[in-house]
TrEMBL record:
GO terms for molecular function: RNA binding. Signal peptide: none annotated. Residues 84-104, 749-769 are annotated as: Disordered. It holds the Pfam family KLRAQ. Residues 11-112 form the Protein phosphatase 1 regulatory subunit 21 N-terminal domain. This is Protein phosphatase 1 regulatory subunit 21. One of its GO terms (cellular component) is early endosome. The lineage of its organism: Eukaryota, Metazoa, Chordata, Craniata, Vertebrata. It comes from Neomonachus schauinslandi (Hawaiian monk seal). It comes from the Eukaryota. Its main location: other. The keyword Magnesium does not apply. The keyword RNA-binding applies. It is found in: Early endosome.
Amino acid sequence: MASAELQGKYQKLAQEYSKLRAQNQVLKKGVVDEQANSAALKEQLKMKDQSLRKLQQEMDSLTFRNLQLAKRVELLQDELALSEPRGKKNKKSGESSSQLSQEQKSVFDEDLQKKIEENERLHIQFFEADEQHKHVEAELRSRLATLEMEAAQHQAVVDGLTRKYMETIEKLQNDKAKLEVKSQTLEKEAKECRLRTEECQLQLKNLHEDLSGRLEESLSIITEKVPFNDTKYSQYNALNVPLHNRRHQLKMRDIAGQALAFVQDLVTALLNFHTYTEQRIQIFPIDSAIDTISPLNQKFSQYLHENASYVRPLEEGMLHLFESITEDTVTVLETTVKLKTFSEHLTSYICFLRKILPYQLKSLEEECGSSLCTSALRARNLELSQDMKKMTAVFEKLQTYIGLLALPSTEPDGLLRTNYGSVLTNVGAALHGFHDVMKDISKHYNQKATIEHELPTATQKLITTNDCILSSVAALTNGAGKIASFFSNNVDYFIASLSYGPKGASDFISPRSAECMLQYKKKAAAYMKALRKPLVESVPYEEALANRRVLLSSTESREGLAQQVQQSLEKISKLEQEKEHWMLEAQLAKIKLEKENQRIADKLRSTSSGQALGLAQENATGVNAAGREEASAKAVLEPAHSTSLLSDVESREDLIKNHYMARIVELTSQLQLADSKSVHFYAECRALSKRLALAEKSKEALTEEMKVAGQSISRLQDELTTTKRSYEDQLSMMSDHLCSMNETLSKQREEIDTLKMSSKGNSKKNKSR
């Protein structure tokens, strides 16, 4: 662990060193670039100074020229002033002298005007040059300031790097000291390891002697007991039953099932395509319901009518092939006999395609020759004829490769095993070609159908038939694409799985040997089934292990359950007795209640009749009509009052009875709850006692495991002795690495010193600038 930590530290330090070295190189490049930039700026400054000097010289020459011109103008003006009075005096002398003076004056004026213009132009040039010089000088000053700032930043970075380098050097020196201490301890451990290795070598010698003796015994037993080694010869080894690879068989059956589904879709699409093509011949270009079609189309429709007898066997052959691949068989090319039948059905279908191909081409030519056919429709018919030829060629190519794959199951020398992979890849390429051809047919037929639908003579029958043909062609393209992608996805598995064979051999020698092997495999399976006895149904082992603790800690043992059943039976008998007692009490209470009600009713009747008689005797002499009505009302009210009293008594009894019944139910529920809680607590106590026993057992098991772990620890310590040698090698490598690190650090210090000197020189130069 210590060496691993040291290695990790050194790796981190090496990474930091590489990072710092890269940063140092970048800084070197930056310093060199800045030096180049400063040299370029110096040259630019020299050029600008030279240009300034030239401009100043030109300015001086121009000022001198201007002064000369000004003096000349003054002289000319003086001469003019002198010539004017003379001209007035000598006006009379003659016109010739005046003309000469005017010409001279005009020449002087022109010369003066040119000099003035030249002076203005030179002033403008001087002003522009001065402005440009100021602008360039400001730019150079700003650039010089930025360069000084960058130089200061680089100097700060260099200082930081030097600090980091010094810190890393100190860390490495400390680590070196620690490593030296650890190396001493490891040397001591290495000495101990050497002693232990000597002991191990002695043990290894003893083991080698023991194993050599056992090997001699086993070889003698093999020579005496094994009479014949059938794996030595390939002819006999091919008859041995290989190891049963159930996963391989299930995978092959799954792949065969998918292929069967794809072939079924393809067969239905082909049936629809041929059937709807036959219907289209009967409709276009001549409708058979209106007029007779040509003999060529009649023959073509007759052949197309027979398509099911050629297409259906493809599905049947693939179904037989799928049924032949079971979990018990060995699926290789030598054992797939049903592939030959599928190949034969495919050849019969290709014969059918060859038979109908010329009629199909002639039928398309007949369509092109009809008056309804346009130039675009004729071009589509030509494209379709080429596509039909390609389709037949692709099917022929596919049939040849499938026939080659069927050869190993019938003829052993028909196809070499080295060519299996190339044949399978060619089958995938043929399927992709079939998909491409069907895409072209779908595209061209779609264009043809759209052109025909735009014709004025297009009937509804033709439109629906074309739609059906387009749907069947689309189904064909989809099916071809699915089969092609499915085969290309599984071709690697096919190539890898076909090398499956007997142990010690690469393949079966002949189909006869493969057939014999399958028979032997069936016999062996039957023998194993006969040996296997039917076992009694029991709990699975995993489930029993999972329920072991529950079964051990469960409280429902036979005695506990018997006690609980007995207690519950006693409670049930008591409750039944109490129930019968209370039923009898309830019946007696009902009888008493009925008698009491009858007695109260009789008493009320007797009192009501006595009162009526007394009233009749008192009022017998003088009773008018109003008195009679009052007596009759009283007689009616009294029995009503008696019935209301009776109903109040009955409702009060019902309330009392309901109250006592609810109280009885509540007490019984509380009693049952208390009983269940007591049983639950009793069960928990028993479970805790059993868990305590289990914990003691687990404690004993853990102590045994501790003993085993101690033994394993001692064994691991022995193994550690072997690993300490590697630590010695690692220590030597680390010491070499430290030496190299010290050398690189010394070089890095020298580079830092040179960088410091160069940066200081650059900073001084920049300051002087």
